[in-house]
Amino acid sequence: MPTIGQDISNRAACASLKHALDLARREAQANAAVKFSSHLDRMATSMANQELSAVEIVELLRQDAEKWKNEGLSCVGCC
């Protein structure tokens, strides 16, 4: 049976680890948001420069959504 001091130490270590994991998750989410925002901006610029029709833009967006979905699914369980 752990002593009171060991119990307090274990709780502190657990809280510290939880804080570090929460921080890492927030950083990963922020990085993903910046990456996706930049990607959308590049796509919009490219579409405007090519003067694509609405139908072409919708098709490109659908293809891109499928690509991002597959990329996300391929990472399930890799972390």
Describe this structure in words.
The chain has helices at residues 4-50, 54-74. By secondary structure, it is mostly helical. The chain has one domain (4-74). The longest helix is centred in the middle third of the chain and has 47 residues, at 4-50. The protein is elongated, with a radius of gyration of 22 Å. The mean pLDDT is 90. It holds the Pfam family DUF2732. This is DUF2732 family protein.
Mind describing the biggest β-sheet? Answer: none
Number of helices: 2
The first-to-last residue Cα distance is: 34 Å
> What percentage of the residues does DSSP assign to strands (E)?
under 5%
Q: How many strands?
A: 0
Order of helices and strands: HH
Please state the CA-atom Rg, rounded to the nearest Å.
22 Å
What structural class do helix, strand and pairing data support?
mainly alpha
The oligomeric status of these chains comes to single chain
Task: Write down the domain tally.
Answer: 1
Shape summary: elongated
Query: Overall mean pLDDT score?
Result: 90
Runs with pLDDT <50, length 5+?
Answer: none
Fraction of residues in H or I helices: over 70%
